[in-house]
Design goal:
With 258 residues, this protein is mostly helical. 66% of the residues lie in helices and 4% in strands. It has two domains: 69 residues, Winged helix-like DNA-binding domain superfamily/Winged helix DNA-binding domain (Arc Repressor Mutant, subunit A, Orthogonal Bundle), CATH 1.10.10; 160 residues, GntR ligand-binding domain-like (Four Helix Bundle (Hemerythrin (Met), subunit A), Up-down Bundle). A three-stranded antiparallel beta sheet has the order 1-3-2.
Amino acid sequence: MTIDPHDPGFADAGIVDPVPLRGLHGHLLELLGTRIADGSLKPGEQIVPELIAQSVSVSRTVVREVLKVLESKGLVTARQRKGTRVSPEQEWNVLDPDVIRWRSIGPSSARQLSELLALRGAVEPLAARTASTAASEDDLRALDECAAKMDAAVTDQDWSAFTNADVTFHRALLHASGSLAIDRIADPIEAAIRVRHQLRLIPKVLSHEMTQRHRDIVDAIRNHDSSAAEAASRQLVDVAGDETMITLSKVSSESAAG
């Protein structure tokens, strides 16, 4: 089955929360990535570059470049004589930050959130435990600065500033572990946190209690208490998980009732 780019909804497909777009290339990437992830473009459907180029008024070169990017993320597969077709979800690179963002509005949204929370629950407590012996003074300073920025954001009820400080904190925590393998998980974990904030699967009011849970991790790392650091990190992830799933359940119930 071939995609019909003249579908009225094609050129106006919704894009997940605003992201920096790189001109026509970036816009088309978001457009196609979102349509694949939300199920509008189904596995096995053929994507014809010439028709896409005509529909959205871009060159075929731009379309081909975008398709190469999507192929590198596992969303499409190019074969001689068969063209480029949408790949099944099992072949997607589900830890790619773009794919995480696109899937957040698709039919697999709840499952993805659950899987990402499980990933955080496996990685972050380990990072905190390891950081208790590996963290440098620079690492501790970076974590302290993030916590201070989160406190300031809570005072101002500035969601954007809080999200950025929260993301930076968790990246700094993974880095403080001293493990290159753990540090490589930073991008998908950042994407998971940003999606959670963008979908408002968090408390409606920012509180200093949220920041204190982060400070508890830093204090344990500073005291070289590996068990306390691991426990504090696990509690933070568990609370985030509970908040996410409870809010998601409420949203689903309201949608069903409406």
